[in-house]
Amino acid sequence: MGKIAFLFPGQGSQIVGMGKTLAEADKNVKSFFEKADERLNFSLSKLIFEGPQEELTLTTNAQPALLTTSIAILEFFKQSNIKPDYVAGHSLGEYTALVAAGAFSFEDGVYAVRKRGEFMEEAVPNGVGTMAAVLGLGRDELQSVTDEVTKEGNPVQLANLNCPGQIVISGSKLGVENASVKAKEAGAKRVMPLVVSGPFHSQLMQPAAEKFKNVLNEMEINNAEIPVIANVSADEMTSANDIKEKLIAQLYSPVLWEDSVQKMISLGVDTFIEIGPGKVLTGLVKKIDKTVRTYSVSDYETCMAVIESLKEEIQ
Questions:
Q1: pLDDT (tens digit, 9 = 90+) per residue, 182-197?
Q2: pLDDT at residue number 280
Q3: SS3 of residue 111 by DSSP
Q4: Which residue in 20, 92, 217, 222 has a CA-CA distance of 20 to 30 Å to 111?
Q5: For the whole model, what pTM was predicted?
Q6: Catalytic residue among 201, 253, 260, 296, which?
Q7: Three-state DSSP class for 27?
């Protein structure tokens, strides 16, 4: 058997009721939801299990909710002694990956992403920045488009390099609109505006990064026990100093997801398990390389089924 990577989803995958069947099935798993409530001084678990969806989707809520749910699911894998060779997460999911790798405690992770969400919301007034998904255009062509628009005084940049032919751009509202038009002229098949509260992973997030430094400085960050493939470099990070630097840069830098998956494959990973709600990441992995195996684990049933099948192989 080849190597295993655990992947953790980012914002956008949240859904009311996520993790509920898991919390009901195991008191250790339930304890993560209780710990999150205690650390944040409000009932995040009630919001996760009962909604409403609009409130759960707010950046400040979605980020700790997703981290909590994914770490709760991970507990079942820990109990079954199934360990990954590598971990990675998309944007917010990188924090979940770092908790999974032992780089910081679950409680610190939940608090950090709550603050991260607050700073991201505050960094750019609502309506000033936005994001759009560009389909069917190569990264070099799109880079030329965003460079040209930025030179005209409307900042826009590549934000998420998700898989071949799917890149998200981010920046000022006018920058994204102008780049969307030029991208179509350059041959993009489709450009879809995204419903987001800000221009994430763009230079406009620099003020959030400055504030967020203080949160990270107060946290106890350890060397990772499992190599984490970093969003900003698509390379392994394990040292505490490297982790801190890359988390700050991650706020305003592109998420190199396609490169990260390719890196893990080059390191011998042939099984990717997405731990958390939705199937966004396994979908992207399949678009990057059809030959690898993917599993999505979001509830008690899928969790047990995947664990059983892996146990059989390990034996």
A1: 999 999 999 999 988 7
A2: 96
A3: helix
A4: 20
A5: 0.96
A6: 201
A7: helix
